[in-house]
Design goal:
Number of domains: 1
Largest sheet: 4 strands, mixed
Strand content: 5-15%
Distance between the termini: 25 Å
CATH class: Alpha Beta
Number of helices: 10
CATH topology: Glutaredoxin
CATH superfamily: Glutaredoxin
Structural class: alpha+beta
Number of strands: 6
């Protein structure tokens, strides 16, 4: 019997996007579905020019948004996260290090990349660990048994940086192709190479509706 996936779906995201964290249960569900291949495409939304200091004004905005996400989805944002991440002196809001690390996982253990993303999200929003810190990221990866990726996250080489840049550029091109303006976003590859974006609420609604959208039903 063939094991070739019948549906290939690209997940466009940013590791520091609260709504992407809200979508984590849906991604776990998709990952478990036979005949569904989930490909990760980090968008770089909060890396590079999108990064910024975690000042009091931005922290207050983020917490208000996070509370809305928690009320709508049930995904937890703990007091530890509020105190140790949003309230950290001289903190940064920068997904660059996590994006590099996820690319390291994609290069060394690609079947574990979604697991790594979920672990980094849990470390940040539940445990209150700073996932802009390469040391924190490496520790999370080592706990998953991803020692090679952890080493690369601590000391990214030129090849890893170039590959990360390529992935981000591809993700941004995909977003433009389907007319999407933000993340999280699911994009299905149709026969013939055409791309189809799922509706914005697909990752937050009933699982049956998500599967129906994936298959075009």
């Amino acid at each position: 019997m063939s094991t070739t996936p019948t549906v290939s779906v690209t997940y466009l995201f940013d590791p520091l996007c609260g709504w992407c964290y809200a979508a984590a249960p849906a991604l776990k569900f998709l990952q478990a579905q036979e005949g569904v291949e989930v490909l990760l495409a980090p968008s770089g939304l909060f890396a590079g020019a999108g990064a910024r200091p975690m000042d009091a004004q931005f922290a207050a905005y983020a917490w208000a948004n996070d509370q809305r996400i928690q009320q709508l989805t049930g995904q937890p944002f703990t007091q530890a996260y509020r105190d140790q991440i949003l309230g950290a002196a001289n903190g940064r809001f920068d997904s660059g290090p996590a994006t590099l690390a996820l690319t390291a996982v994609a290069e060394t253990a690609p079947e574990r990349e979604l697991d790594a993303l979920h672990a980094l999200q849990h470390a940040r929003y539940v445990d209150g660990r700073d996932t802009t810190d390469a040391g924190v990221i490496a520790e999370a990866l080592r706990r998953l048994g991803l020692a090679q990726a952890a080493a690369l996250a601590l000391a990214p080489d030129a090849a890893l940086r170039a590959r990360t840049t390529e992935r981000v550029a591809h993700a941004q091109a995909t977003l433009r192709t389907v007319g999407a303006r933000g993340v999280p976003q699911l994009v299905v590859a149709e026969q013939g190479g055409a791309l189809r974006a799922l509706s914005g609420d697909a990752l937050l609604g009933p699982r049956e509706r998500l599967l129906a959208q994936l298959t075009g039903g």
